[in-house]
Design goal:
Layout lengths: L3 E5 L3 H19 L7 E5 L2 H9 L3 H18 L3 E4 L8 H5 L9 H9 L6 E5 L2 H5 L1 H9 L3 E3 L3 H13 L8 H16 L4 E4 L17 E3 H13 L2
Parallel strand pairs: 1-2, 1-3, 4-5, 4-6, 6-7
Helix pairs in contact: 1-10, 5-10
């Protein structure tokens, strides 16, 4: 079994889901008492969040790059970054290591391609929704990415950082998220990417009548799958 290096803590709420999903997948596939071989480095998210707000992405990349190097030195065979947003600095991280980094958007597309979907709605932080680093991968695969309007993007972003990252589940926020999903559907979205690893804490496939792509589950299961190859 290969060893998974996890860069987590962004937030720890969703990183805990990664650990759970990885081990559940390996238990199901390998049976018995098998569990995942993992090395986790969990950051202080407050430090990263401040750098995000100050648009200091290169500094973020260097911090996570050094963490990836430590994970490689500790024996990780490949790296996963347990957040969508910080894939913005994946190219910087890669310069610090010689082992692969499994891109979350690539993993998500591998699930979308099995559906007859061309128009996909994207939820996430404002950095993910407004940036090109995530959407570009999907667009290059032939998808039309549909995003919320500016006001809704701000609401989603504030809910993620002020509620979900703090473990707060608010029913009114859930209702607003579902209204935003309805708007995306009205724009033509045939499926919805939960492009922030915390969103699954608030809404899920049970709430939505078109395919929902839970990036946390997809990414974690991809890592678990690769560990068994």
């Amino acid at each position: 079994m290969k060893t998974i290096g996890l860069i987590g803590g962004m937030s720890w709420e969703s990183t805990s889901l990664y650990y759970k999903i990885i081990n559940e997948y390996i238990k199901e596939k390998a049976g018995g008492l098998h569990s995942g071989k993992c090395i986790l480095y969990s950051v202080d998210f407050d430090e990263i969040n401040k750098l995000q707000k100050e648009d200091k992405w290169e500094r973020c990349g260097k911090i996570l790059g050094n963490i990836a190097k430590k994970l490689e030195t500790a024996g990780a065979d490949f790296i996963i970054i347990c957040t969508n947003t910080m894939h913005k600095v994946i190219d910087i991280i890669k310069t610090y290591i010689s082992i692969p980094v499994i891109h979350i958007a690539e993993a998500v597309y591998s699930k979308i391609e099995h559906h007859n979907i061309k128009n996909i709605g994207l939820l996430g932080t404002k950095y993910t929704i407004n940036g090109d680093f995530y959407k570009k991968i999907l667009i290059e695969k032939g998808l039309n990415v549909i995003i919320p309007d500016d006001e809704d993007i701000e609401f989603i972003n504030n809910t993620i950082f002020n509620e979900l990252c703090c473990g707060i589940i608010n029913q009114k926020s859930k209702e607003k998220f579902l209204l935003i999903v309805d708007k995306l559907k009205n724009k033509g979205a045939e499926g919805i990417i939960l492009g922030c690893t915390e969103i699954i804490m608030l809404i899920s496939q049970d709430d939505i009548n078109i395919p929902v792509f839970d990036t946390t589950k997809i990414h974690a299961e991809k890592a678990a799958e690769l560990s068994l190859i």
